[in-house]
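Continuing the batch. This is chain 6 of the set; chains 1 through 5 are on the previous pages. Same settings as before, nothing changed between runs. Recording input and output for traceability.
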Amino acid sequence: QVQLVESGGDLVQPGGSLRLSCVVSGFTLDNYAIGWFRQAPGKEREGVSAISTSGRIINYADSVKGRFTISRDMAKNTVYLQMNNLKAEDTAIYYCAASKFYSDYATGGMEHWGKGTQVTVSS
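Output for chain 6:
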């Protein structure tokens, strides 16, 4: 059974950092691309970052480039999203999602989704 479980969300002050984790089961990271998405209240879901099955293709939304870093630990079946210099506009529920095809990230049509973790950036 495919499962994705996010953790690491919290309340943090502007300029602070968080590391989100996405632990996957039921598949391996060399077979599925992983994407991080977020949805803020009243806004549409948007893609934040993605990593391909090989790990060689990585994408970041313009709004997070230079601040967020996606990585993965194959042995732990875990994908991370390191978020630095957080801003109020980063406040959202963050979801990780998996798909056999990296191209699904662009459309948001990922095959499997986690339940999300709340990130709140506020002073």
